[in-house]
Structures are given as structure tokens and as C-alpha cells.
Design a protein that fits this description.
five-stranded parallel β-sheet; 5 strands; alpha/beta; binds shikimate-3-phosphate; single chain; 13% strand
């Protein structure tokens, strides 16, 4: 029970990667990002996979990553925002994992993703993460996709609204939840 994977799900821009990385560091666990796994398998960034091979190819590889992760234990896993749209992925991630959904208000998602998309205007990423599903009018796309996916993240065992919270706040809240449920075992080490 204590070596179950901790799987972060949620819409783009809810902080899965930043929170997952920090959570893994604090718990002394290995961190896996499913987008990075897909990129490694196909040898190119997500945006190029979408452009050159199509979304279906990306989703197939994403499903393959979930199949592989179902056999792993003790990881912190940050997932791509669309991973839960495939029930098979959810089944695999759940196999050894606790699913935690990160949510955020649409305005906050827009603000975070706008910063990431343009490093010159203050974004923290050196290489901006291009999100193929948000090309064009980003604000309209965010609202449209949030509507289309309403309910998709309800598969989580627990969910936390990250609006107005720092990464550190969110991580501490998640640790509180996991401790309360007895999922952690003296793992806190590396602050
Ligand atoms: C997607 C989210 C992205 C990435 C791809 C598709 C989605 O990951 O997997 O661009 O369908 O929501 P993040 O949620 O990490 O941005």
C-alpha cells in the first residue's frame, strides 16, 4: 500500500509537472512525466509529434507509457492533460496508483500558460512548452476544452484546487492527504 505510485492528473497548466517534481524530491521518489516518456520514445517534442505524426500517434504512445507504468511502483507520475480521456489509461494508472487531480480556474490556467509560452515576457521555462491543442486563440481553446472535459478528471481519488496556491502549498496539501490516508511511510526526507 505504501509503495503505490502517486499519479497527478489534470488539465494543462494546473501544475502537474512542477508539483510532481517537488513532491518526488521531498519524498525521495523517482519522478516520471508521461509527456517526456512519449518524447523519448518517439525522439521528438510533443508539438512535433502532433504536427508530423498526428494526435492519434501521440495518444497511442501515451497509452503504451501507461501500460508500462502499470507495472511500476513507488513513483511520482505527472501525466499529460488528455491522458484520462482513454479509460484504458485510467485503469493502468490506477493499477498501482493513487490518482490526484490538480484543478485551477480557467483564468489562472490562461495566465500560467501565457507565461510559459512567452519566456521573453517573464516565463520561467527556457524552452517554452508548445501545446498543440491550444494553438490559435488560447483563451477560447482553454474554455472549450475545459467544457469538453468537464468531469473527465473526476476519476481521481482526491482533488485539489491549485488556484492561488504556490507549488509548495499544493505539495504540502497533497502530503497531508497522503499521510492522512496512510499512503506514506517515513518518506519525508529531502525537503
Ligand atoms: C495535452 C496535454 C499536454 C500534452 C499534449 C496534450 C492534452 O500535457 O500531453 O499537448 O490533451 O491536454 P500537459 O497537460 O502537461 O500540458
Amino acid at each position: 500500500m505504501k509503495d503505490r505510485n502517486i499519479v497527478l492528473i489534470g488539465f494543462m497548466g494546473t501544475g502537474k509537472t512542477a508539483v510532481g517534481r517537488r513532491l518526488a524530491a521531498i519524498l525521495g521518489r523517482a519522478f516520471i512525466d508521461t509527456d517526456s516518456e512519449v518524447e523519448r520514445a518517439l525522439g521528438k517534442p510533443v508539438a512535433r509529434i502532433f504536427a508530423e505524426d498526428g494526435e492519434a500517434r501521440f495518444r497511442a504512445e501515451e497509452a503504451e507509457v501507461c501500460r508500462r507504468l502499470a507495472g511500476c511502483r513507488g513513483l511520482v507520475i505527472a501525466t499529460g492533460g488528455g491522458i484520462v480521456l482513454n479509460p484504458e489509461n485510467v485503469r493502468h494508472l490506477r493499477q498501482n496508483g493513487i490518482l490526484i487531480a490538480l484543478t485551477a480556474a480557467a483564468e489562472e490556467i490562461y495566465r500560467r500558460l501565457s507565461c510559459q509560452a512567452s519566456p521573453a515576457s517573464g516565463g520561467r521555462r527556457r524552452t517554452p512548452k508548445i501545446r498543440p491543442l491550444l494553438q490559435g486563440d488560447m483563451w477560447a481553446r482553454i474554455q472549450e476544452l475545459l467544457r469538453a472535459r468537464a468531469g473527465a478528471y473526476a476519476v481521481a481519488d482526491w482533488s485539489i484546487d491549485t488556484t492561488g496556491r504556490t507549488v509548495e502549498d499544493t505539495v504540502q496539501a497533497i502530503i497531508g492527504y497522503l499521510e492522512g490516508k496512510g499512503y506514506l511511510d517515513q518518506e519525508r526526507g529531502n525537503g
